[in-house]
Write a structure and sequence with these properties.
Strand order of the largest sheet: 2-3-7-6-5-8
Shape: elongated
Order of helices and strands: EEEEEEEEHEEHEHEEEE
Strand content: 35-45%
Oligomer: single chain
Mean pLDDT: 92
CATH class of the largest domain: Alpha Beta
Low-confidence stretches: none
Largest sheet: 6 strands, antiparallel, barrel
Number of helices: 3
CATH architecture of the largest domain: 2-Layer Sandwich
Length: 248
């Protein structure tokens, strides 16, 4: 099983690791399995990280274009038609930090949006997606108006400015599911076989089961701007946002 370091410390930018296997190719691009990694493999609407693998022995570098889970392992996709490192090679896995940090800020912003919408309007999440610096979330709203969206935007920015701590912890499944309203999505996406649940808690605002990377405090997000809203069905409405403050 690949140790995914970012699940416990999203601020770790590089880690020493060993190649466990080459798990074939995808479109001519080798898939490298490591024993530990700082790369987030994607999921929950957050895309996977990108970055580099470096071999200190000879200075060789490989670009990681994407990462995905392969059973209990994590496979790192390299550029097509390159000779991959060999099993047993000692490497350094280094994430593209600027991209990762933008995704951390964006993901926390979306959780703040979810927290405000759930607390103030009781609307469940029906979907979401993000890219560095921008994202969207779908909710069970029957109606949305510019006035309502404007009020939501203002409230989210007020909450972000409170500099709320963001905690990550792991709980046994039974203990986690005893928390009221832990699952804010319309459908529970957590497989039955997962016995330890990762919890992300924006103190005093939002607490959810989540696997993605987040900042330590809401002040790191800066401010958000709602860039649009639209209907995706009778009771399914989409809110789009972007980050408007520079990174710290």
């Amino acid at each position: 099983m690949t140790e995914v370091v970012c699940s416990r410390d999203a601020y770790e930018r590089a880690v020493e690791t060993t190649v466990r296997a080459i798990a074939g190719e995808e479109g001519g691009a080798p898939l490298v399995v490591l024993d530990r990694t700082v790369f987030y493999p994607g999921g929950g609407g957050q895309p996977s990280d990108t970055g580099l693998l470096l071999r200190a022995a000879d200075g060789r570098r490989w670009t990681v274009t994407g990462v995905k889970r392969a059973g209990a392992d994590v496979a790192h996709q390299l550029e097509a038609d390159v000779e991959p490192p060999a099993p047993g090679d000692r490497l350094v896995a280094e994430v593209d930090w600027a991209r990762r940090y933008a995704l951390m800020r964006t993901h926390t912003a979306l959780h703040a949006l979810c927290g405000v919408v759930w607390r103030d309007y009781g609307a469940l999440v029906t979907g979401g997606n993000m890219e560095p610096g921008a994202g969207r979330m779908d909710f069970e709203f029957e109606r949305l108006s510019s006035d309502l969206v404007g009020a939501i935007e203002a409230t989210v920015n007020t909450e972000l400015a409170q500099d709320r701590p963001v905690h990550v912890r792991f709980l046994p499944r039974a203990e986690a599911f005893a928390i009221p309203d832990l699952i804010r999505t319309k459908v529970n996406l957590l497989p039955e076989g997962i016995e330890e649940i990762r919890i992300v808690d924006i103190e005093g605002l939002d607490l959810q089961a989540d696997g993605g990377t987040h900042v330590h405090r809401t002040s790191e997000v800066g401010r958000i701007e709602v860039t649009g809203y639209e209907s995706k069905g009778r009771i399914n409405k989409r809110i789009r946002l972007r980050l408007v403050a520079p990174e710290g």
